[in-house]
């Protein structure tokens, strides 16, 4: 499951270029001092990873609640179905508009982000990355479904961390080289992303079915209750 997070991030980074690329390109990186500029970019990515890990922790904890109530398998199936439906019927995700309160918070984050981009202090890069991680993104939402499916706060955090890690190579290249990839190539990758999401969705469904396949679809663990007893003849 964790491997899917890295693949998600690697392929999804082409989507990230369109969403977060302008922010990355506007980073006040010191291009006169390559070493200093490198650590500034690292600081920016650490900020994003921190936010993703924090959100993953919360959603993993949410998934833990379903696990404690015995709904882990059902949750995995539901998440898989949701992933597939949002790809097959994209209008579903478009209709899921943010509430007014959340929209207000997002506007404040964007405003704070704009102010930070005008600064040149070394500490501002982590803050920019931290705020960047909270901006709404459909791909991040999909990754968060995976974090919930882990049913574990730590694994949920790790899932989102690995997802963010997968986006770093291309995002870093974009900071240095700008829009270096051809539009035709990015369009081809964009077509692969829905297929990847469907593949991961199917994986979650199979995992939830408990087919007895090691590591992929393990059988549900039977709990021993007080009423369970062993008869000796």
TrEMBL record:
<protein>
    <recommendedName>
        <fullName>Urease accessory protein UreH-like transmembrane domain-containing protein</fullName>
    </recommendedName>
</protein>
<feature type="transmembrane region" description="Helical">
    <location>
        <begin position="154"/>
        <end position="180"/>
    </location>
</feature>
<feature type="transmembrane region" description="Helical">
    <location>
        <begin position="125"/>
        <end position="148"/>
    </location>
</feature>
<keyword id="KW-0472">Membrane</keyword>
<keyword id="KW-0812">Transmembrane</keyword>
<feature type="transmembrane region" description="Helical">
    <location>
        <begin position="49"/>
        <end position="69"/>
    </location>
</feature>
<feature type="transmembrane region" description="Helical">
    <location>
        <begin position="75"/>
        <end position="92"/>
    </location>
</feature>
<feature type="transmembrane region" description="Helical">
    <location>
        <begin position="192"/>
        <end position="216"/>
    </location>
</feature>
<feature type="domain" description="Urease accessory protein UreH-like transmembrane">
    <location>
        <begin position="5"/>
        <end position="202"/>
    </location>
</feature>
<dbReference type="Pfam" id="PF13386">
    <property type="entry name" value="DsbD_2"/>
</dbReference>
<dbReference type="InterPro" id="IPR039447">
    <property type="entry name" value="UreH-like_TM_dom"/>
</dbReference>
<keyword id="KW-1133">Transmembrane helix</keyword>
<feature type="transmembrane region" description="Helical">
    <location>
        <begin position="6"/>
        <end position="29"/>
    </location>
</feature>
């Amino acid at each position: 499951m964790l491997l899917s997070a890295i693949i998600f991030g690697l392929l999804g980074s082409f989507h990230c270029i369109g969403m977060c690329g302008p922010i990355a390109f506007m980073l006040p990186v010191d291009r006169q001092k390559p070493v200093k500029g490198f650590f500034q970019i690292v600081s920016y990515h650490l900020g994003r990873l921190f936010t993703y890990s924090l959100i993953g922790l919360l959603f993993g904890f949410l998934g833990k609640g379903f696990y404690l109530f015995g709904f882990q398998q059902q949750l995995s199936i539901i998440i898989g179905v949701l992933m597939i439906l949002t790809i097959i019927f994209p209008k579903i995700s478009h209709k899921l508009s943010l509430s007014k309160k959340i929209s207000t918070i997002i506007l404040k984050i964007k405003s704070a982000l704009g102010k930070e981009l005008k600064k040149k202090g070394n500490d501002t890069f982590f803050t920019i990355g931290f705020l960047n991680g909270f901006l709404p993104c459909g791909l991040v939402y999909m990754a968060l479904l995976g974090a919930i499916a882990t049913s574990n706060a730590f694994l949920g955090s790790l899932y989102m961390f690995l997802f963010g890690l997968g986006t770093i190579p291309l995002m870093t290249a974009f900071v240095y080289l700008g829009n270096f990839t051809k539009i035709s190539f990015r369009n081809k990758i964009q077509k692969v992303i829905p297929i990847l999401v469907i593949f991961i969705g199917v994986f979650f469904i199979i995992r939830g079915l408990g087919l007895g396949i090691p590591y992929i679809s393990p059988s549900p663990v039977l709990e021993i209750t007080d009423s369970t007893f062993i008869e000796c003849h």
